[in-house]
Fold each of these.
Amino acid sequence: MNGKERIARRIAREIKDGFYVNLGIGLPTMIAAYVPAGINVVFQSENGMLGVGPPPMGESADPDLLNAGKQPVTELAGCSFFGSEQSFAMIRGGHMDMSVLGAMQVDEQGDLANWTIPGKMVKGMGGAMDLVAGARRVVVAMEHQTKDGTPKILKMCTLPLTGKQVVHDIVTELCWIRVTEEGLVLTEVAEGFDVAAVQARTEAKLIVSPDLKPML
Amino acid sequence: MDKVVSSADAAVADIGSGAMVMLGGFGLCGIPENLIAALVRRGISGLHTISNNMGVDGFGMGLMLEAGMIASHIGSYVGENRRLETLVLRGELNLTLVPQGTLAERIRAGGAGIPAFYTPTGLGTIVAEGKETRTIGDRNYVLEEALHADVALIKAWRGDRHGNLVYRKTARNFNPVMATAADLTIVEVEELVEPGVLDPDHIVTPGIYVDRVVVGAAYVKPIESKFIQARGTA
């Protein structure tokens, strides 16, 4: 199991029965495959679908049936389709139990930066700003550091923000961190790492939870 | 009450250079392929476009970009279009990025006679810079203004001569809301039916919003990110 799979599997166990969840493009999309048996969750795709099913097998892809990552998906029983204004009314209106997004930077205030690098990248924020402003719980799923080893969990984000004080939890291949008013609380550490190893890869100061657990 | 026009070219024949044009679709899903092709054939320029994305190099709105028709664009995500990225970084095209939900709601407001609204989206980010903010209850909000266009180019699945429309799966996306927010709404449908065929309870866009209907043909519907499950997961 690689780091991304470990992150996806751990977050999947945080999904409760009856949840409506939006999974961001990339790593967060992997979470759907790890939802434990017996947990009924409805995945939303912000292009206008509730009840998103797994990718189609073989060549049965329907170009009118895609997720927000523009990948073919399938319909689960009880799914529904709707327009963009309705999709974001349910997001902005606080109807999503959880939103999981990737990040370029996140900081100890719970600020998130995940959409642009000035002068280098012109892509756009898509639905990310609405998701972080509206979901009841915002979980960041990302690799702990950049590919060249630069920390991504910072005292203060330096890239343009997606949202201010919006992140509730940060999950990486190393640990689970909860964002609190006191700061970032380390609650779980993955096998093969300890608190010092996680702190060494993190710019922000971590508060170690008295209930620190292994991240399974 | 017959809004059917003979061809996509006839349907867009009076769109002039400099017009503000909304185009439905999410990525390449649910885009008005025939109307875009007709617009490119018209050879106009200086268009101000509003669309969630901007096609890809070689398809969808990417064709309009390659034809040099677009002066400015409002959208939420343009990451799949390298030509656009180059033009923007060089300062040759004026791009305004808007959060997707704010974009949808600004269009909804534009069609519903609401001049502006407060939203929590984008607060504390560059999106809110220069905009009025206000505290309502215990939360702060940003004032966002409605969007309205000269023309909306819409793709539906089935439609009748009155302009009543039904969409198919996730090809609905921005199409119904954009249909409400332009002076002139032109729709291409995959299938034209006679009034009375569509179940009135299932109509998503009532014909009052639609000015012209054209039957589309030769749909390509490319899948932007082909992702076929080759092996079992988990």
Amino acid sequence: MLPRPMNDLNPFRAEGLGKLREVGSQAIWSLSSCKPGFGVDQLRDNCMDTYWQSDGQLPHLVNIQFRRKTTVQDISIYTDYKLDESYTPSRISVRAGTHFNDLQEVEVLDLNEPSGWVHIPTKSLSNGKPVRAFMLQIAVVSNHQNGRDTHIRQIKVHSPTIDKPIMVDDFGPFSTVEFSQYQYLR
Amino acid sequence: MGNHQVFQNITQHTIHLQKQSAEGLMSLFRDLGTAYLHLSQFNCKKAIECLENLPPHQHDTGWVLSLIAKAYYYLNDYRSAIKYFAEVREREPHRTQLMELYSTALWHSQKEVALSALAQDLVRLDRHCAATWCATGNCFSLQKEHETAIKFFHRAVQVDPNFAYAFTLLGHEYYTTEEMEKAMSCFRSALRVDSRHYNAWYGIGTVYYKQERYQLAEMHFKRALAINPQSAVLLCHIGVVQHAMNQTEKALHTLNSAIALDPKNPLTKFHRASIYFNIDRHADALRELEELKEMVPKESLVYFLIGKVHNKLGNTHLALMHFSWAMDLDPKGANSQIKEAIDPAVSRNQAEEASTPTTSTVSTLPFTPGDL
């Protein structure tokens, strides 16, 4: 049997194995709209009982802006149809780019009464590798039963880790001359 | 007849004496020549042997002593090099040849006072000598005033454009200030002057290494090693590059030969220990580090790495003990990384989450996503 490619792996399990990392904490998050007290904090608080609720026209947008160009393997979204009913998104579009004006759609996903985590792999359209971008946008295009506002309980962004061996250089300077004299030639 | 006989005897005797002294001179030159050849071919140990066998009145001259010092310098034995260079300066304070190597040996050993004295003496002695400005540059480099050091190395290049070592030093200085392009062109200039100047090949290698172009780095380090095959430090660098390219077996092999070449070099052993740690040969890593602890009892990073090994083995108590020793030995330097190492150790111990990866900084989720 062929070894399973990494993107088949559950992202959370891959995170446990050290293959992926949650990088959402490095980004700046913004929303197209929200009800007071149901915003980014609730979207990122690791708690499934709280949620983001939009307050405006469709589509509802989540903007994730990174400080540097970031490789994104997948986005995981937690929604629960049993609790949110018509607030549950039914069609989600994921866009990537460098800033607001050059976003390109990388994935569209239809959801059917989801309850739990939905993993959306983000692959670049041109080469099929994980997309590299400064900015991601998650757009809720429509909701179940034509609901207007949306609920999303959690969003996670995963980035692949680079398998780099631990080097002595990472440790910092040596404290004794016995070591440091051999560190460089001159 | 009698007079003639005596005269002939005397002549013969003189001829004999002359021949003997000429032969003596020739054999002296031959010995010196052999030694010089060995040194030029970087057979440093042999060169030292030849030079030490010279008769005392030849051995104790500035020229011979400075050659011995140079040989020790190439073997990266800076302490012996300094000892011999100091003797040279005592005997012939006016000698400027090879003083640039003396200054670099002092730089390596971080002997600020001696280096500063040397630089000042040389400036007073000869302002038109490249060695003078190399020493001065080294002096400022040791004080971490790299901009000033660069100025002085520039002066060294100006006074003698055919002096390869000044270019190399300038390159190393640009390297420390992270001006890689300039460093590269300096190393290339050095090679233009002297293509057997192995430091410059090494310098190019370090630049590539910094740019994470490991294959090119390895190639240039090997180039340097081909010129000076007995340098354990060069071998050590090659081992590190191979490790960076994930060629662990090769790296270990290279480091082993480096250690065989110079068993007293603690850094090589430290690199080997860190590779053992990387490939989960914890027992080997610990053994290596224990040896290092005997060799250099005051190196903070040795304790730090021992702590990391124990941490991985789950001996939290021992890990914390070593981390705090490491912190005591180097209170200001590597402080933050040691604290960082201590912190997750503590939190993980409390949470008893043995499976959490060490890199993860995200708090554990309130449910178990792995079950999904």
Amino acid sequence: MPVNPELQGRVFPPAPPYLVGLEKVREFSRAVFASHPINFETDAALAAGHAGVVAPPTFAVVVQEQTLAQLLSEPDAGIDFTRVVHGDQRFTYTRPIVAGDELTATLTVTSVKTLGPHAMVTAESTMVDATGAHVVTATSTLVVRGDE
Amino acid sequence: MSTPIFDELTVGDVIAEREFPLTRDSLVRYAGASGDFNPIHYRDDVAASVGLPGVLAHGMLTMGFAVQPVVDWAGDPARVVDYAVKFTRPVVVHPQDGALVTVVAKIGALDEGVARVDLTVSFDGKTVLGKAQVRVALGRR
């Protein structure tokens, strides 16, 4: 089944809120070779004026993942997970993610393009905090390989 | 750590260079931290069965560590306001020897207190990320 072009413009229901845990931020920071104290120590983060330990710039992918799972499991999407290659990725921050945040992500499919047998799906996950204020938007382009 | 002064920067300045020796352990650690348990990132048999040259590093792991020299230079991870990459080549991680990835970070543009830092991320003499750009808000003096 090819990728459904009518996905373009579709907005998914918000994913369940994600609670950003301090130890998760530290674990993720270690995994991406972060070494800055603001990624690990609450005191250092507070001293720099942050509300808690700051997550590394790519941490938002953990929250975005929930929304991409919604897209991949959409019955009429026609996206075969085993044929998906990550083409590009972007994070645009209004403010950094900090430990203690409760983030709600909403996915919008912004574009579906076909290139021969392949399709390129661009999906944007907009994340807001518990007050509804924007924190970060994560944008992925997924390349779905078709039959050659 | 001090904050770089925006008005003292020049396009073309190399602001950081670093080598990242990856091992299979790095991939397992990232799988657990990120929740991405695709077995092509830790099982040779699965990687081979889908025609890959070997177990690959997660693209998001490479994106994740490549920005760290910029974070250290900026003095605060919160100064990174925008970060985008294209995934152009895989990083194959050998079971014994691992993989050595190098990152060179250079000032690409300067605009209204925001420095665009362009990353050259290479493995085995070839770049693995395309158009890897980090926007760092430094403010004006």
Amino acid sequence: MSSQAVPLWEVFIRSRNGLSHKHVGSLHAADTTLALQAARDLYTRRGEGLSIWVVPSNAITASDPADKGMMFEPTASKIYRHPTFYEVPEEVGHM
Amino acid sequence: MYTQALNSNPDAAERHVEDAALAARFQERIDAEERIEPNDWMPAMYRRTLVRQISQHAHSEIIGMLPEGNWITRAPSLRRKAALLAKVQDECGHGLYLYAAAETLGTGREELVDQLLSGKAKYSSIFNYPTLTWADIGAIGWLVDGAAIMNQIPLCRCSYGPYARAMIRVCKEESFHQRQGYEIMLTLAKGTPEQKELAQDALNRWWWPCLMMFGPPDAVSEHSDASTRWKIKRFSNDELRQKFVDATVPQAHYLGLTLPDADLKQDAETGHWSYGAIDWDEFKQVIAGNGPCNKDRMAARRKAHDEGAWVRDAALAYAEKQRLKKAA
């Protein structure tokens, strides 16, 4: 009787060289070898990728959506971090 | 459809009072077409509705492998066999994407699978019909997957992010399923008189059960109101059923086949096809477990689960052994 839960993994795939790995979904597997094989069967049946990462889901630390305001709002108020904040005379041309 | 919304009615008594401000803010986000993500606050009913719907959808994909799997070893050519194998593998994949989406709501995979095996959770009525001839494989791809697509395309815009993302993957793959089914039907319909008869017979048997896939008529559907308000559901059962009929009737005519409905006729003004009365008693019987194959399907799933137990146990034991070795 299998009473033990099979661990959850998050799957990241690089679709082609030059692009970064992107989260595509999750799966259950007993260990890293099986997780990689399952990721290949489950997420790359139609040539979706050239490289797979599998990461135990419980190894990921996520920000709390409740902290969204505190975490991310300050970036919106600091408009001087964007190039369009600064005036460059038209005569100077593209900068 | 794959989620006919017939499971356990939400118990009114369980609807505890939630923070009204949070609930209002939630509805504002939904109305603004924002996606809800796993760790966001959501009403308990929204969560429960989604777990029920997504897991029912997942179970349907998994059980759906059985009627088609029945023909893998008897496919008439290598080309057909390879395609059918790939299709059945896709259905498994769809089930797994969906289980993963349901799990983000806090219900574990083992629990979801147990709900199916114990009979507590339902799956689509359509998979309780038998696949008697090769033509049934054509009819399933064309009609069952065709009906599935009608239902799943709007689900790609469902308010719950993980479900919507899973549906986008599923829809990309589903188109091949429908086309391979139609090709089988076309080959049979253009073949010998006996082959055409097979195709017609399959259409006769699958047509009405396919219309039932969209679930009860709007007038008696239990879950639609909340699901619509929460943008889980964007079209009613009857709207989707009508879209399916309108899309499918001309395809049947092209095959030179007759739909088994004497009342089927096109409205000259709107172009819509109106169809005859659906036998909802048959639908209720199939959902209640009394369809032609309910017992077979559940027996097959339980057998596969039980006979695979040693594999799951061995894989976990091996992983544990490796972990201890590493730690030592």
